[in-house]
Write a structure and sequence with these properties.
7 helices
Length: 146
């Protein structure tokens, strides 16, 4: 008998990220990523920067009032999230960030304190897209095979 799996929207996002990691590691070095790839990587970076398993100091600071989002520890966690931790995203990390209810103020404080000025607009768009995905009902998702 075949094994059945129930996939959540978080599993699907994690799978997209993992597929992108595999694709980017095996792709032509002259090929430039498209806008969807950039947005997916930024979403993964944001999740890695806020998830407790990948960025404990940031997670703790956001949940305790977001007063020190520009500290050296948080800057270091963001640098690690951007360079490599984004590749380690799991569905549980996505679920955790989705349930954190991060305020706009906390996100923008983190953004202005850590993200380079040239990239901030991309992060704002990716964050907005993530928030929409977090609010989306599971029944609204289709796999395109129906």
């Amino acid at each position: 008998m075949p094994i059945k799996y129930t996939l959540t929207k978080n599993d699907m996002l994690a799978e997209k990220i993992h597929n992108y990691v595999l694709k980017s590691g095996n792709s032509d070095p002259d090929r430039s990523p498209d806008a969807d790839d950039d947005c997916l990587k930024i979403k993964a970076t944001i999740i890695a920067a806020f998830a407790s398993s990948l960025s404990w100091q940031t997670f703790r600071t956001i949940n305790n009032g977001a007063s020190m989002l520009g500290s050296p520890e948080i800057k270091n966690e963001y640098a690690l999230a951007k360079s490599s931790r984004w590749k380690q995203i799991r569905s549980a990390d996505i679920q955790e960030v989705a349930s954190m209810n991060i305020s706009e103020r906390a996100f923008y404080t983190w953004l202005l304190s850590n993200v380079e000025k040239e990239e901030r607009e991309l992060y704002k768009k990716a964050w907005g897209s993530l928030l929409q995905e977090f609010e989306q009902e599971c029944d609204d998702i289709s796999d395109g095979n129906q």
